[in-house]
Amino acid sequence: MSDYSQHFVADHVKGLPRSGIRDFFSIVAAMPQAISLGIGEPDFVTPWHIREAAIFALEKGKTSYTDNLGLIRLRREISTYVENNFGISYQPETDVLVAVGVSEALDIALRAVLNPGDKVLYHEPCYVSYSPSIVLAHAQPIAVGTSAEDQFGIDPARVEAAWEPGCKVLMLNFPTNPTGGVTERAKLERLAKFAIEKDLLVISDEIYSELTFEGEHTSIASLPGMQERTIFLHGFSKAFAMTGFRIGYACGPKPLIEAMMKVHQYSMLCAPILSQEAAIEALKNGAPAVAKMKEQYHRRRDLIVRRFNEAGLDCHSPKGSFYAFPSIQSTGLDSLSFCKGLLDQEEVAVVPGTAFGPSGAGFARASFSTSYERIIEATDRIERYVDKLSKNA
Amino acid sequence: MSSVLQLLLEGEHLNTAQMAQVLGLSESEIEAELKRLKAEEVFLGWRPVLNPDRAQENVVRAVIEVKISPERDGGFDRLATRIARFDAVESCFLMSGAYDLLVFASGKDLREVASFVSERLSTVDGVLSTATHFMLRAYKEQGYLLLSPSEREDKPAVSP
């Protein structure tokens, strides 16, 4: 038999790294006693009324395909929700596509708009799939670093400096996984101006927008002249604690949604109908549950950030998401050694910042999507670990 | 609402040291706040929440619908308070609808609850009628779902 990777695996796939989070957590999986601050999903179970709506839909025999774009009832709810919460109005019949999570929406958006060799600007550290999704669309990723000094918000000047001929798309994700960074309106306005000047399409992933703790979340799509050049991506996984339902959506100009629909149609066909039914219930009646979860995340954030700083790890207060991104530079260790040592010696798992791109070096991602008790215990152990490191230094 | 009270209502069991950590306050501040809430009778006290099937084998609980005649001065209050004072009464509420008071009562066996109803409750002057419903099984107690292990939610430890 031929050497598989030599002969069968496509070149552009061969070069892709595996997710650094996954790799790290295959180690953690063998240590059930460890406290994990690594999980990138809500610790809450999907609110019961949403689960119950899915059960009811199943009982009623809702087991069919749906329209490629998704159930029109759901698209109408999405359109209303986006209008009320983001101030952008989309036609449910033509401008909204329901996808299998934001991950799929992102993938089909990139595949629908990129030609081989096109360039895509995105900010880093960022969610693990961004660069690989661009590569899988045969395009070229161009990372723009963000830094702790800016609390990991994007600096428009760095985007402008990174631009080069051939750039077609600017990808944004605020609040950001893994840093919790947000970008204030004035900077978004400058980015919008730049996007218009350079004729860039913006793909904006707003999955953590409901979990904004300070200030008001602004979508770049809501800025003047931007709706017509933005694909707005959102979903249910984080705010509604519905990760396993795999349901998200894209809103954008009709011709782009039409192009995405073609890719979606031939690959996924449609999102599962049960998840779509659950999503309708989430949008109609989920707001109180979201508010309650957000309140808890907020308190957990304040706790974990304070504890990191007390433990001697500089940590900015993330304005959104459920991730803290402390600097581990004071320990003198690199991200991976710090995280491995912490797991070995104190049985606490956090994700090395480098899993989110080279500019995550010197940081670690700690999810505060877990109980107060576990956060207290984990940060006590981290403090002990950091103390030991400084004594040995 | 005070942040201490909000934290209590979340339902995660924390001691005062942990509450202090979560809220970024000192333990004495937490204790002072709890004291204030108690003094103002906002927070009435601590009670353990037990699984009746496991911990209270010898307890029989009943819900009793009670009709009473209101009085010219004070309406239902005097009678309701009088009924509420019995040790057998766990909770007592004035209700709208077909009856006036809903009384949650308990005893060590059926006979004890029955005798409370027939000898104590229904003989109170002003009580017009009672309808007693015995509880058979608990599925949720004070916000805690009582699930068998196979019904519990189980999450795979996976992260993308």
UniProtKB/TrEMBL annotation, chain A:
InterPro entries: Aminotransferase_I/II_large, AspAT/PAT-like, NHTrfase_class1_PyrdxlP-BS, PyrdxlP-dep_Trfase, PyrdxlP-dep_Trfase_major, PyrdxlP-dep_Trfase_small. CDD domains: AAT_like. Residues 34-382 form the Aminotransferase class I/classII large domain. Its cofactor is pyridoxal 5'-phosphate. Keywords: Aminotransferase, Pyridoxal phosphate, Transferase. GO terms for molecular function: transaminase activity. It comes from the Bacteria. SUPFAM superfamilies: PLP-dependent transferases. It holds the Pfam family Aminotran_1_2. The keyword Transferase applies. Gene3D superfamilies: Aspartate Aminotransferase, domain 1, Type I PLP-dependent aspartate aminotransferase-like (Major domain). The keyword Glycoprotein does not apply. Its EC number is 2.6.1.-. PANTHER family: ASPARTATE AMINOTRANSFERASE (PTHR46383), ASPARTATE AMINOTRANSFERASE-RELATED (PTHR46383:SF3). Belongs to the class-I pyridoxal-phosphate-dependent aminotransferase family. This is Aminotransferase. The lineage of its organism: Bacteria, Pseudomonadati, Verrucomicrobiota, Opitutia, Puniceicoccales.
UniProtKB/TrEMBL annotation, chain B:
Signal peptide: none annotated. Gene3D superfamilies: 3.30.70.920. InterPro entries: Dimeric_a/b-barrel, Tscrpt_reg_AsnC-like, Tscrpt_reg_AsnC/Lrp_C. Residues 64-137 form the Transcription regulator AsnC/Lrp ligand binding domain. It comes from the Bacteria. This is Lrp/AsnC family transcriptional regulator.
